[in-house]
Amino acid sequence: MLDFIKIVVLGIVEGITEWLPVSSTGHLILVGDLLKPGLSDAFMEMFNVVIQLGAIMAVVVLYFHKLNPFSPRKNQRQKMLTWQMWIKVVIASVPAAVIGLIFDDYLDALFYKPIPVAVMLIVYGILFIIIENKNKGVRPEVTKISQLSVKMLLWIGVFQMLAMIPGTSRSGATIVGALMIGVARETAAEFTFFLAIPVMFGASFLKLVKFGFHFTGQEFGLLMLGCAVSFVVSVVAIKFLMGYIKKHDFKVFGYYRIVLGAAIIISAIVKMIMG
Description:
Elements: H1 2-17, H2 24-35, H3 41-50, H4 52-62, H5 64-67, H6 76-111, H7 114-135, H8 150-162, H9 170-180, H10 185-211, H11 217-244, H12 251-274
């Protein structure tokens, strides 16, 4: 029963933090360290990635019409634009896909620790504040996904690749990259959602293959529970974020990241001094 509750908490954390630019992986690592579910480290490492499937299904459900190039409610031009959008998603996914296949295990071993998470939380928190201050009063150059050039897509893709370091935040990194090149906040957030689909499906499949699909009945049940909770909470989080950025900028997330990162570092120092 205790592990059941802990898995629900982790599903809630994933659903909220996957889409808000505050680092889902970073929060899962930190919350997981606090909760310490009675499951193997290998399973929890895989679990933290695979429950992203629940989160990504929220995007598929909420944006199904916009993502579907076969929708009978679309005319020929709209279907063509949908295909073009998917091509843009694939182009922007290339950098993370290549680096992920080569360095996935190395990055996990090196950075899945509280201090690297804290540092990246602070670094990108500062970037959010700097970029939003710089863009204040400036009209965005790109207000539609269809306006993104190949050069812009690769730039956003490089920032998504940087998000493979825990604490960076995939959504946070891609949004920062998009804002830097003059993409409007709503467009940056929406493209980030769509960009997550192939990347997160790919990352989840990779983790499942490495884990070996060898689940006990309990582990499979907990994995499905985490995905279901993540899906429901993600629907709420996505709707909140899209409503929020229509009237506000991303600076509040930057301040949150800095405070959280500082708290993690202070906690680590205290633990070191105490013993």
